[in-house]
Amino acid sequence: PVANATISPGAPAHQVRAGDPVTLRCSVQVGSAPVTFSWLRDGQEVARGPLLELGHVDVRHSGTYQCVATNQLGQARHRALSPELALEVTPQGHWNTGGVTHGHWECRTPGVTGDPDVSLLSPAVAAGLGGSLLVLALLLGGALGWHRWNHVAPFPATHRLHPLRAPPDPAAPPEEGEVLYAHVVFCRQAG
Q: Start and end of every Ig-like domain (predicted)?
């Protein structure tokens, strides 16, 4: 018989960043040779053998992994499932200007009076936020921005065109906790 299959590293939820190398190992505490191993991701077999080498992962590797250990003793076939491992791959922040590196932008700064200086900052400053919070904030901000953009009157004549340049890619993503404040600025390219 075979029993007590485990995955190492063995946390029930395992979070890694995109680009990190990931290798999972399946082992059993009890089992008569020969023991064979297979790997399931979201219930579908993806590999065979005691090691699952995912290489440098990306978000497509996220899912629930489980290893299956089997052996046969005479006519009886035995099987042991490991506990599930939820692998979450978080994307690395990057600045994407969509190919636009300079130009004129019309910008609104709701709640700010006067003629503020407007700068576009790399979204990598938000990388210090937790993944779920960041996704929620981006979804909410996108929905509100789309609604305001499409349902609020066009820019009043008092709004100027602001010449802006996109910043270069940051040398390194900020560490967790480095984001001190944020302000939403609505912009659309004008030329």
A: 1-82
The pair of structure tokens assigned to 76 is: 């009886």
Pair (84, 14) in one structural domain: yes
Long-range contacts of 155-163 (CB under 8 A, 24+ apart): 155/106, 155/108, 159/106, 159/107, 159/108, 160/115, 161/104, 161/105, 161/106, 161/190, 161/191, 162/104, 162/105, 162/106, 162/107, 162/118, 162/187, 163/102, 163/103, 163/104
Residue ranges, the chain, pLDDT below 70 = 10-13, 93-191
Cα separation, 100 vs 109, whole angstroms: 21
> Is residue 96 included in any domain, yes or no?
no
Beta strands in the chain (DSSP E): 2-8, 13-17, 21-31, 36-41, 44-48, 51-56, 63-73, 76-81, 85-90, 102-108, 161-165, 186-189
For residues 153 and 173, what is the distance between their CA atoms, to the nearest angstrom? 37
- Domain containing 39 equals 2-90
Answer with the one of 49, 69, 90 that is the final residue of a domain. Answer: 90
- Residue type present at position 146: W
Exposed/middle/buried for residue 89 (C-beta within 10 Å: 0-12, 13-18, 19+): buried
pTM, full prediction = 0.48
pLDDT tens digits, residue range 21-44?
999 999 998 888 889 999 999 999
Residue 95 domain-assigned (yes or no): no
